[in-house]
Design a protein that fits this description.
277 residues; Oxidized Rhodanese, domain 1; 10 helices
């Protein structure tokens, strides 16, 4: 299964025994939207509500940290997700939260995970069926996963500042990256490139082509022959960058999960202001 699937692909497989559809919608706290309530009002038939906002390791010192393998497995058991099934993730979020969910599943070693291109908005725009209510699913066994992908920590980033080959790409908008007055940010990690995550999407919310994605990163000064680490404010839209690079065929990409919430809160970490060099 491809990492990115179309609405046509999913519509042809609704009801298939091995296809598991998960609503991974998550909104920013100040959005005024309630993802769970919206799911109850309309969702793709057969979808289950992932509750991505709570799929974190609350015991970690890292804000909004990736869940532990045990925490991830427990959520899968609650949702009745079968290990190894074809899992399709979608969202109806301005921050394209399905990409974060994709990272969590890929991190947990799930072999067949995809994002629905264009999400719920495209599904509805095409006049496809939606359901209401909050269906329940019988729990089922799900083994604790062996994680396959490293997550970068603050010390990894500090070490990378001494490595001329290290590349960090920040997904925040240009004003927050630069630390402009009124942006709510005091800059960025020194040496980081800046690719606002929205640049990777078409007007209808679908992802740009692999060639376009590669051109956008290269235009921002990123050498795609070298490894990349992505970051943002909380580790959410950094996953949009990471997922887009995966779609473009680049797999040596890691996530700095603490991102600016961790880095910016530490008075001892170096910080830079202004546009990317």
């Amino acid at each position: 299964m491809d990492k990115l699937v179309s609405t046509e692909w999913l519509a042809a497989r609704i009801g298939a025994d091995d296809v598991i559809i998960l609503d991974a919608t998550m909104h920013l706290p100040d959005s005024g939207r309630d993802a769970q309530a919206e799911f109850g009002q309309r969702h793709i038939p057969g979808a289950r509500y992932l509750d991505l906002a709570t799929l974190t390791d609350a015991g970690s010192s890292v804000p909004k940290a990736v869940p532990t393998p045990e925490q991830f497995a427990e959520r899968m058991r609650e949702l009745g997700v079968a290990r190894g099934g074809r899992i399709v993730l979608y969202d109806d979020s301005d921050i394209r939260s399905a990409a974060r969910a994709w990272f969590l599943f890929d991190h947990a070693g799930e072999p067949n995970v995809a994002v629905l291109d264009g999400g719920l908005a495209k599904w509805i725009a095409e006049g496809r069926q939606v359901d209401k209510g909050s269906p329940t699913h019988a729990p089922r066994d799900y083994p604790d996963p062996d994680v396959r992908r490293d997550v970068r920590g603050k010390q990894d980033i500090l070490d990378a500042l001494e490595d001329s080959d290290a590349q960090l790409v920040d997904a925040r908008d240009a004003a927050r990256f630069a630390g402009e007055e009124g942006s709510g940010s005091d800059g960025h990690i020194p040496g980081a490139a800046n690719v606002h995550f929205t640049r990777l999407l078409n007007e209808d919310g679908t992802y740009r082509s692999a060639e376009e994605i590669r051109c956008i990163f290269e235009g921002a000064g990123v050498d795609l022959d070298k490894p990349v680490v992505t970051s943002c404010n909380s580790g959410m839209t950094a996953c949009v960058l990471l997922f887009a690079l995966e779609v473009a065929g680049k797999e040596d990409v890691a996530l700095y999960d603490g991102s600016w919430m961790e880095w910016g809160a530490d008075p001892d970490t170096p910080k830079a202001k202004g546009a990317a060099g």
